[in-house]
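Margin note: ligand = manganese (II) ion.
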Amino acid sequence: MASLTDLINLDLSHSTDKFIAEYIWIDAIGGLRSKARTLSGPANDPTKLPNWNYDGSSTGQAPGKDSEVIVYPQAIFKDPFRRGNHILVMCDTYTPAGEPIPTNKRCNAAKIFSHPDVAAEVPWFGIEQEYTLLKKEVKWPLGWPTGGFPGPQGPYYCGIGADKAFGRDVVDAHYKACLYAGINISGINGEVMPGQWEFQVGPSVGISAGDEIWVARYILERITEIAGVVLSLDPKPIPGDWNGAGAHTNYSTKSMRNEGGFELIKKAIGKLESKHAEHIAAYGEGNERRLTGKHETASMHKFSWGVANRGASVRVGRDTEKEGKGYFEDRRPASNMDPYVVTSMIAETTLL
Ligand code: ADP
Ligand code: MN
Ligand code: MN
Ligand code: MN
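Resulting structure:
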């Protein structure tokens, strides 16, 4: 008798040339949805995959009378859950007339990144995605006594041991699954608040940083589904003396990475300062609960920057100052930010 696990792991490669494509898209509130279809033929070029549609009236993205939202395949990754030749497909969303729907931020971002002045500067992004794991039944952080609190922050950041690190199996499963999928994941670490973790993606060029963060979030939520824990991207999951969750966005252009780059970095930071309010408004819901000026954040009301300063809006690393070239870190984005919005806005403000 076959077990369920045997069937889930069935190798289809000798039975059929067909493969399964899991189409992924962003819903009305920045969550992810997906559904699967059987395809055949080449699976390496998103422009060769068929468009598809979903019932937008069920996701709050279309009226019931004209409910179809059309999804366009944009980026392909290997599927770590089904493995074999099966794929994950990151899509964006359009009306039947071909207009991007309001929650489709990728369309405009792709336009900015294909602008010749932006493309010529080969913008790199390294995004640090912080997140919190919650116990499913009580929606309280993993490792915390239900209805109570753990000991104060201090031992948990990069910590080890059963009383300091909670959920490492999920974190490590996600790390390997992302590498398998072809995501440029660059590392993971335990965070200051117990039950909170971080993964980094990048450096990735232009629009691919957004595609990779969204698919890495998708893989993470699928893994938490298997593990029976809940993923939270809330920027301040627990009020009070507990660190919030951000999505620090590290950025450089070709000129910043070359001789004399530090001068250009300072100019770019000046441009970000002049558009501080616009950026803050687009950097994630609920970020005002996180950007208080405490817990390694800068107040959202005042732009600041500094070398090695983790209490500033923007931080330049010691190495970048010393070498006179490199990159900088925008520490303002919240964990629930849309990376298409944040990366394209930084490129637009600093390059156009
Ligand atoms: P932190 O010290 O703030 O915790 P991390 O090591 O978590 O920093 O993340 C740094 C990120 O910066 C990584 O995603 C890395 O890929 C990225 N990065 C490194 N060099 C560059 C660069 N030149 N341009 C953009 N991003 C970069
Ligand atoms: Mn980090
Ligand atoms: Mn961090
Ligand atoms: Mn950081």
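DSSP finds ten helices and 13 strands in the chain.
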